[in-house]
Write a structure and sequence with these properties.
There is one protein chain. By secondary structure, the protein is of the alpha/beta class. It has seven helices and eleven strands. Helices cover 29% and strands 20% of the residues. The protein has a six-stranded mixed sheet. A five-stranded mixed sheet has the order 4-3-2-1-11, covered by helices on one side. The longest helix is centred in the middle third of the chain and has 23 residues.
């Protein structure tokens, strides 16, 4: 079962749409499903969303995605979500979706996630009030992820798709003072409870490609980390990113 995944594409007016489209479709042609982990646009504006939709249309494989913080900069992400839906992609905002491939049910639970920090480490320079707001947001996103994963118990393969990181292990390489802004360990709680086969996220451009939560593989599929818009990997298996 081949999955193509990526995030942090940051579509902007200067993006060379034809070149990006060719690269994405080449990767998607070898995949059974395409998963996009947010920050697909630079600011979420309608013109960026339209270019993104043009690239994602007719990908040749089902496309499932979550929104990132950049996608939400314009009216909360409505333009990006609408453009992707019109192009045939499934936007989990939040939610769950099941794709059947050759008789195998693949369930994807998706949320944006939120910042908040790890092991009680406060956000640098944020102040107590803002830090509490981040943590409340992370708790709300974790609750949504828990519900989405719970709905997929009948699936042969279950994947958690986020934008923010649920573990600091895939943040190694980023400055530690930035970690609270890049994810939250509250997002790990539903992952530990429901034990999906794989977790994907983006957002950490300078982070590490692989980590784990209680033995569950976590992949950072930010384009800046994997070195291309989409990486291919096989499921089931070790969920190691291939060189394809």
């Amino acid at each position: 079962m081949w999955v193509a995944a990526g995030g942090d594409l940051h579509f902007a007016p200067a993006t060379k749409v034809a070149a990006m489209q060719a690269e994405l479709r080449a990767a998607a042609s070898a995949a059974d499903i395409v998963l996009l982990a947010g920050d697909l646009t630079a600011t979420g504006r309608p013109e960026e969303a339209a270019s993104l939709a043009e690239v994602c249309a007719d990908m040749g494989a089902p496309v499932v995605c979550v929104l990132g913080n950049h996608d939400r900069r314009w009216e909360g992400g409505t333009a990006v979500a609408a453009a992707l839906a019109e192009a045939g992609a499934v936007v989990l905002d939040p939610g769950a979706h099941v794709v059947e491939v050759a008789g195998t049910r693949i369930g994807i639970a998706g949320v944006t996630g939120a910042p908040g920090g790890f092991a009680g480490r406060a956000a640098w320079g944020m102040g107590r009030k803002a830090d509490k707001q981040w943590r409340r947001a992370a708790a709300a996103e974790a609750k949504e992820l828990d519900a989405a994963l719970a709905s997929l118990q009948g699936c042969s393969i279950r994947i958690a798709l986020l934008h923010y990181a649920p573990t600091f292990e895939t943040l190694e390489g980023e400055e530690p003072y930035l970690w609270p802004a890049l994810g939250s360990d509250q997002l790990a709680v539903p992952i530990q409870r429901h034990r999906p086969h794989l977790v994907l996220h983006a957002h950490a451009h300078e982070g590490s490609p692989q980590g784990q939560i209680a033995g569950i593989p976590v992949l950072n599929v930010s384009a800046q980390v994997i070195g291309k818009p989409l990486a291919l990997f096989d499921l089931p298996g070790e969920a190691a990113v291939s060189s394809a």
